[in-house]
């Protein structure tokens, strides 16, 4: 069904925003098939992503009377909303997510994680559309299920229009404070310079057609080169997971090319490059009601853009947020191994390691990079002496303890979304090393600032 017409592949889309802004609900809403009663509409569940065929998008946006042609095969929306998958969809620092939805709760405006999302988007150079969500919560809102937003607005009272206008202006002003111009999408005459806002409700569906159409139209209009399908395999590891019956598997977004069972692949590992053969290429079973654990469809070969699971030997130490390389018959193994480790080196090289600074440990390369970027920003400015991906080990703690004599507050591990075993924690305590854990960047940094603040007094 993923017919690569016009030589274009499906744009890859991520959803970002503050906690409770409605990211998950929005994803559910665009995934919902209730719109065209009983029709599945060709929406397919992949690993870590949902594929929306262009026919489905065309149907759902019919009321918008879009005259422009839709040239892409569909839209591939990543299923894990939030920072993690977006941060991991990376290649040497730039973003492989083609377009993002930044969700803002109309009742709350910009919140800390909205601003963090903005800096991530900026760091990766990713285009985005703002979904100004929860419009149905405006006082007196008349529900118009799944209607285009202008049609829905016509049904609203004067009071709703006034409240909407006030809140919208507030949000636009808040974006302005962040150095960004934003405007309602149907008033936006300079897309690219000015970011578009689409009012939505993830509960009642108003504005969803607008959002879908805008995503596809903008992507195919401005990203032709990026979306032109390439034979050269490009795949990125989003997650490393143990699955019963398959051992450690990697969840990969195949951005370009064709992958086959038996292909030799090289991936970046914590203990050096991993060379292995693809044992199985897997996607979820289409019949969801038969949700038997571990039931996957096996593919002999599969074409981008797709979310897939790969089973192979030796993947235990694979690092999420790095590229997967396929070893062709004419490729030099050593060269490909070097290339696979390049991702890790790229991040290492970007931190000007100072001899005095904290140790930063994260679960994936993408989140490590995001955290390091944040630590560098003016006003935060936390020096880093060492970094790592994966669980914190005793040897890390020993290394960090050396910092106690240089600058006590920097004898700290900032552990982002990683496991710290009790015996590692014990050792840290014994040696006077602090391990701060968190899975929200600014919380972690706030914790650190609070401690250093105390120490300075
Ligand atoms: P996330 O943390 O960003 O993924 O937010 P969720 O999708 O989990 O939504 C958080 C809460 O807001 C849930 O209780 C949702 O039901 C609610 N919610 C999300 N979107 C909307 C919306 O458009 N309208 C209303 N009224 N509630 C919403
Ligand atoms: Mg959620």
TrEMBL record:
Keywords: Cytoplasm, GTP-binding, Hydrolase, Initiation factor, Metal-binding, Nucleotide-binding, Protein biosynthesis. One of its GO terms (cellular component) is mitochondrion. Residues 8-224 form the Tr-type G domain. Its main location: cytoplasm. It is found in: Cytoplasm. GO terms for molecular function: GTP binding; GTPase activity; metal ion binding; translation initiation factor activity. Belongs to the TRAFAC class translation factor GTPase superfamily. Classic translation factor GTPase family. IF-2 subfamily. This is Eukaryotic translation initiation factor 5B.
